[in-house]
Write a structure and sequence with these properties.
Elements (H helix, E strand, L loop, with lengths): L2 H10 L2 E11 L2 E10 L2 E7 L2 H9 L4 H8 L8 H4 L4 E7 L5 E7 L5 E7 L4 E6 L3 H12 L5 E4 L2
Parallel strand pairs: 5-8
Antiparallel strand pairs: 1-2, 1-7, 2-3, 3-4, 5-6, 6-7
């Protein structure tokens, strides 16, 4: 398959769902959406630095942000990847070895999601209990072949 065919295939994949998260970069916390498509995960950051920082600081409600991202479900990934409002990078399912979640916080429960690839570990924080995050990710990964574990 040529590179051009691969690029067009990625742009035409169907979005299964989006998990709102906070990524910890060297610049600090940045709000993002983990877009689960047919064969890839897109990590979409807002292009506006103000939106990124403000969204991560005020810790948006998981369910409200999930509804906001729902407008992309069952559409092509090209709507996110070509949108100038987002800066994105792609994690192919084929490079993900496994994923796991862990819960943190005594009063305000948060979940930490780790995505493992042979060369890197991606870490995201979600403002929701681990049970809810595990259920949502389990539904999105159905049939992908990625091993997912909840807990420690």
């Amino acid at each position: 398959m040529t590179e051009k065919n691969e690029d067009s295939r990625i742009l035409e994949e169907e979005v299964k769902g989006v998990i709102p998260a906070i990524a910890w970069e060297n610049k600090g916390p940045l709000q993002c959406g983990l877009v689960f498509a047919t064969h890839i995960i897109i990590v979409a950051f807002f292009s506006s630095k103000i939106a990124q920082f403000a969204g991560a600081i005020r810790t948006p409600d998981y369910h409200i942000m999930k509804k906001a991202w729902a407008k992309f479900e069952h559409k092509s990934t090209g709507e996110i990847l070509k949108n100038k409002q987002y800066k994105c990078y792609i994690i192919p399912y084929s490079s993900v070895t496994h994923m796991r979640t862990a819960e943190t916080g005594r009063i305000r429960k948060r979940s930490i999601l780790h995505i493992y690839t042979p060369g890197q570990v991606y870490v995201f924080t979600c403002t929701v209990r681990a049970e809810t995050l595990g259920k949502d990710i389990g539904e999105l990964l159905c049939g992908s072949g990625i091993r997912f574990s909840k807990g420690e």
